[in-house]
Specification:
There is one protein chain. With 192 residues, the protein is an alpha+beta fold. It contains three helices and nine strands. A hairpin with a 2-residue loop joins β1 and β2. α2 crosses α3. The longest helix has 8 residues. The protein is globular, with a radius of gyration of 15 Å. The mean pLDDT is 89.
């Protein structure tokens, strides 16, 4: 069985995560979109200014969750990468729910809204966290990841939803996947 060496830099690990299956809280999803954050060398990274109580998990052992609250309501998550102490990670931006759809729907569906389209269950970082049932208690917990046998086609382009260091091609996604965030952007690099 293939494995991922999480001690590698986030920009190396990120495309390796595409197509892998992440299981947490009774839901399994196939990862379709991630962004790499390169620590103290990356002004958009939570760890750019060093270690704090909030981002300490990113400096911890690789292969674990870094969970944080975004906009006061969303639980976003990274998978910690690079050697311990470097503060790098891969933001989980999108995925396709494979098992536990009823659980994911219960977590995501608001009773006053129309049913959520299947491909939107884990589309966007906050929705990934909600579908998986992630909370701050999962911060620093090991990830349960099944690595895919064959690497899918992927593309890379600029990160989205941030205001710093946006031009670098550190967002990776599987082209044509409906669970990938919009804007899907124009890839700057393609891997076939």
């Amino acid at each position: 069985m293939r494995t991922i060496d999480f001690t590698q830099p986030a920009n190396v690990v990120a495309p390796q995560l595409l197509g892998c299956v992440l299981t947490h809280g009774g839901v399994s999803l196939r990862i379709t979109e991630v962004e790499a954050y390169l620590g103290v060398d990356d002004p958009a990274s939570h760890t750019y200014n060093g270690k704090t109580a909030r981002n300490a998990a990113m400096f911890g052992p690789p292969g674990r969750f870094y969970v944080y609250v975004s906009y006061g309501i969303h639980y976003n998550s990274n998978i910690v990468c690079a050697p311990e102490g470097e503060g790098q990670g891969c933001l989980l931006r999108g995925g396709e729910v494979l098992t536990g759809e009823k659980v994911a729907r219960k977590r995501r569906q608001r009773p006053d809204r129309a049913p959520i389209d299947f491909h939107n269950l884990a589309r966007g970082p906050g929705n990934v966290g909600q579908a998986l049932g992630l909370t701050l208690q999962d911060n620093g917990a090991p990830v349960n990841l099944t690595v895919r046998e064959a690497e899918p086609e992927w593309v890379a382009g600029p990160r989205i939803g941030i205001s710093k260091n946006t031009a670098v091609p550190l967002r990776f996604w599987i082209p044509g996947e409906k669970s990938v965030s919009t804007p899907r952007g124009r890839p700057t690099r393609r891997h076939l």
